[in-house]
Amino acid sequence: MHLNYALEYLTVPRRKPEKTMVSNIVTGDLKTSRRNLLSAGVGMVGAIAAMASLPATAAAAVQGAEGTHEQRRDERFVETKDGTLIFYKDWGPKTAQPIVFHHGWPLSSDDWDAQMLFFVGKGYRVVAHDRRGHGRSAQVSDGHDMDHYASDAAAVAEALNLRNAVHIGHSTGGGEVARYVAKYGQPSGRVAKAVLVSAVPPLMLKTPQNPDGLPIEVFDGFRKALAENRAQFYMDVPSGPFYGFNRSDAKVSQGVILNWWRQGMNGSAKAHYDGIKAFSETDQTADLQAITVPTLVMHGNDDQIVPIGDAALKSIKLLKNGTLKVYPGYPHGMLTLHADILNADLLAFIQS
Asked: Which of 9, 14, 128, 206 is the S-S candidate for 109 at Cβ 3.0 to 4.6 Å?
């Protein structure tokens, strides 16, 4: 099924090599002479010899310092039970109430820039992670399903000891929040509130039990487009339905489009391919029914990616303690285009 049918329905910069002492001399601005280079070589040999002659305790101290440096470089990652490294951001006072952000497909925690800057400025602790296979997290082959997404989120919450947290999820991230809260957050007493923004629950796919859902051909079209030309696919989605830029009155932002493309292309093609099944075919009716903490459901009524009728309007009926807020004319990517409005509403809900 062609991408047009589907759309109708609806980088991390490469690190520059660190210069060694020799490369600094060879490529430096001083146009080093052969004598300088030889002197540097002698100096390096001398340093190595001096290191070898150090007392064991001193040598261990130097090596320990290097180990500390390596450990610091890994502090932004949490290792899950299956050995997957999950990248995270953790800004603001560690004693403040945490707000945890869960991004949508196929993006990364960078998609929450407008919200994280806003809430850290209000004194909150803000945390966001890159889903496995997305952004800077490990590009593992397996585990690209809602159960692993929720388990990984739980690993981050436990590693950072997040309590009394508000978990906010957009799109696929909303499904991640629903599964995490129901299976891990509530039972452990770590969650205060939840927010589902343009979220995929309860079920996107059309089935005999969900006749109003989207046909499988829509998601097959996504898979086909991704496999054939992911780079172009990741231009077509944000340029069209994701932000509503295909509407005649839309104010198109090339920066927003390119930022979406950048985030998507930083992730794993396999994780994104498998993720289509995760966000479209996972029935989360039971997750929503199990959630008892206050939950805000936010959705635009011009969402062309996750139609409101298949999502928010059904989710609110399944939640025991839910509040629905509908945004007339807003698209799927409303958190970016209308951050000022949504941030204020999120703040009001968190403080209520």
From this structure: 128
Indicate which residue of 103, 129, 272, 332 is catalytic.
Answer: 332
The three-class DSSP label of residue 273 is helix
Structural domains in the chain?
3-12+79-351 (3.40.50.1820), 33-73 (no CATH)
Please state, in angstroms and as integers, the Cα–Cα distance from residue 10 to each residue in 273, 299, 313, following that order.
18, 15, 17
Give the integer Cα–Cα distance in Å for 264 and 234.
7
Please tell me the pTM assigned to this model.
0.81
- The edge-to-edge listing of strands for the beta sheet with 165-170 is 77-79, 85-91, 125-129, 98-102, 165-170, 191-197, 295-300, 322-327
Cα–Cα distance measured from residue 13 to residue 343, given in angstroms and rounded to the nearest whole number: 29
**Catalytic status, residue 303:** yes
Question: Per-residue DSSP letters for 67-118?
Answer: HHHHHHHTTTEEE-TTS-EEEEEEES-TTSPEEEEE--TT--GGGGHHHHHH
Q: Tell me the one-letter amino acid at 198.
A: S
Among 111, 236, 303, 310, the active-site one is: 303
On the 0-12 / 13-18 / 19+ scale of CB atoms within 10 A, 32 is middle
108 is catalytic: no
pLDDT at position 10 is 58
Q: Of the listed 171, 198, 239, 280, which one is catalytic?
A: 171
pLDDT digit string, tens, across residues 153-211: 999 999 999 999 999 999 999 999 999 999 999 999 999 999 999 999 999 999 999 99
Q: In this predicted model, what pLDDT tens digit does every residue of 260-315 receive, in sequence order?
A: 999 999 999 999 999 999 999 999 999 999 999 999 999 999 999 999 999 999 99
Catalytic (active site) residue 332: yes
CA 101 to centroid of chain Cα atoms: 8
| Phi, psi angles (nearest 5°) of residue 348 | -60, -40
Q: What are the E-state strand segments in 276-345?
A: 295-300, 322-327
